[in-house]
Protein: Lysosomal Pro-X carboxypeptidase
Organism: Aphis gossypii
Amino acid sequence: MFIFAYSQLLMIILHVTCGYDYTTNYITVPVDHFSYTNSDTFKMKYLMNDTYWDVDKGPIFFYAGNEAPIEDFSDNTGFMWEISREFNALVVFAEHRYYGESMPYGKSSLDDKVKLGYLTSQQAMADFVDLIKYLRNDTLCIGKRPNPVIAFGGSYGGMLAAWFRIKYPATVEGAIASSAPIWQFTGMTPCNDFYKVTSSVYRNTNIECGSTISASWKAINNVTETDSGKAWLTDNWKLCTPLETTDDVARLKYWAADVYVALAMVNYPYEANFLAPLPANPIKEVCKSMTNHTEDDATLLMSVFHGLSVYFNYTGSASCLNLSSAFSDDMTKGWNYQACTEMIMPFCTKGGEDDIFEPYPWDFESYAKYCENRYGVKPTTDDVEKQYGGKNLKAASNIIFSNGLLDPWSSGGVLKSISSTVRALLIPDGAHHLDLRASHPNDTTSVIHARKTIKHWIIKWIFDYRHRK
Amino acid sequence: MFIFAYSQLLMIILHVTCGYDYTTNYITVPVDHFSYTNSDTFKMKYLMNDTYWDVDKGPIFFYAGNEAPIEDFSDNTGFMWEISREFNALVVFAEHRYYGESMPYGKSSLDDKVKLGYLTSQQAMADFVDLIKYLRNDTLCIGKRPNPVIAFGGSYGGMLAAWFRIKYPATVEGAIASSAPIWQFTGMTPCNDFYKVTSSVYRNTNIECGSTISASWKAINNVTETDSGKAWLTDNWKLCTPLETTDDVARLKYWAADVYVALAMVNYPYEANFLAPLPANPIKEVCKSMTNHTEDDATLLMSVFHGLSVYFNYTGSASCLNLSSAFSDDMTKGWNYQACTEMIMPFCTKGGEDDIFEPYPWDFESYAKYCENRYGVKPTTDDVEKQYGGKNLKAASNIIFSNGLLDPWSSGGVLKSISSTVRALLIPDGAHHLDLRASHPNDTTSVIHARKTIKHWIIKWIFDYRHRK
């Protein structure tokens, strides 16, 4: 569960064309911004729209791209598009190096550790600085005119937006960091908090739902003890590949745990297809069938299966349940590499009162071994803290950390305001970066309020910027 | 003059044992902090003294080493030693990579461009972060206890101290950046400001002194037009090597201009031997002989020679005037490399009303050519602005920029307070980082006051740090 869990930060998915209009552009940037040993360059992609832009005073809304092709984020960040009109803003989405088309060494970028070594958040942010400078001077020719840059980002992109403001406050005037787990690191957040939050979402939806999931792990173990039990589960859960070994059973449990996490992330109040096509309030839907944790193992497992079906087969088009990842190796390799270098996030579960999962410790040693085997890198646990300050954000300014409390990643988020200009914004009934998504008739009061608050802060930052010049 | 001028930022010189006591230590740090392509490490040197340290509450006074062996800075930063007692501070001087003993690739560190490529301010600061973390956790075992770090630095070290606070405010609570020309870069300060300040020091000492220097360039040109004139000057200025070509004459003029700058930098109110052994208020001494710019060429050149003698022969031990640099190639190679990569500082002179020098334009193209020939690097002009924010320091906090107005480098310094916690501190009769030097009976009121102000700010920062935890 713990290695797979990383792929959930990876917010890739189904390409949906949302009808947002942009031009696709490229800028040449250095592969290495921090030494002079490598003078290679590459083309970084960015999307731009100036429909509503007022060159004399409009801000630049800059999305700090994360671990997927940039279109995935431009499609799922409707908030930026919607408010660009009232702010007369230029909209820019920058693609993160080593994702989408922005490959420093073309198709072989992810192949070897020397080429992959430049995949870091620091290098990505230095790309962003170059892009903003280039836009100001070469493309827009606005130089230092009063067009402040406001950074936006969700999830890892939200971390980048916050860090971007922390490290480059002269480049970016403020940051909207949505669902940004900047404290999901060693020594900052207990390793089981992520699954605690996930669990509370199920328990709060329906206490029996949480208990049913809790009970299901033992039920799976019981039933799959025998070969006939494995065959029964294969049959009744309609698995594409039969359960044969204990490893197969473990993989099934990982998959289920991942699904529970994914559902919590995308527990939106309307139909959406972000991680998968799902109904409105999917957890409510999932929990409908899981209402009695005292059922016998077979009955309980069938009710769990019905619940899980909401995730893997909402459309009814899946002929069987495929446990292998929906993500190709190419799609996840970049992020998994980052998770082996800078982004070491410890996860664990304890079970019982703590969470609805089977106990599973955080084992740094074995994780490090995996990283060495796969990428030839030795993970360290303190790079992020050293570079970005960890829990000490006292000197930061102009950052909104918004978090939906239904989102497992809120465990590593900033949930209390740090200072008068570094603010925590809570969306109690919101899931993973709901606030950055396009508005929807089903939006709850809390997300509508959050978006208003964000706009107020942006107005203030722009005002402060203009009246300083 | 313009390439040589860089060597004046290089504050090396005569090793003086000041009787400060310390242990000499080493820490292993990565050669590259910003990519995972190179896993080499090296030993970085640091000096430490805990005589007055109170482990329960004393701060860590951390000198951000600059472009020379660290002992040069520990010897010439008496202020830190003196106040360590009243603050119960731990004193640490960290050596900058590629200087002194801190050579990433041993004796061949400066030899080729791949090895040299990791000589950057960013990498050096990441070393400092590692050192501070290591001191806290491994050496002092204080973890996150209330021992705030205050960074100090003079000249390039002052730039590093300021940038260190800007980039790593969670690591360092405040910075004393003395004579730190963080704005001596393209687009931030006109290229002739440096020589304007230098000129004003001479003109203010004695208007005739400035005029005499102004007139001397033409006098040199006139006299050296003929071979007999060259011989005359060689003889009368006691040159070690005779003037034979126009290039030799140009070199003589460069040398003289450099001496005028150096004198302005070390125009201290007491005898000192920082760049050279010099009397108190050396410019006053130099100007004593230069009192009439209308003298005939030969008389004028003799008065100038007597003035210059104060610099090159105050002790009377020089048998002839040696125009070649006092710095070996090894001593300057590191800084000259930095001046070809990140630290491109444009200098020029205009002559006439503007300054006391011959007009000399800033020629980036030829400078770039020199850098390519010598180091195989193509200089860019905006790295510092992109990384550290240039003139926009609005989001910074807890930095004192102190500048002596006799110091040519004050031209690129922060001379006006930016905000309530980023303060400019002017020392009208102070030269290059006079405030960081040990106190002296001849200290002027202004430097005594500056040191008091600095101490007040340090007290405030420590207070704020403690009452936040």
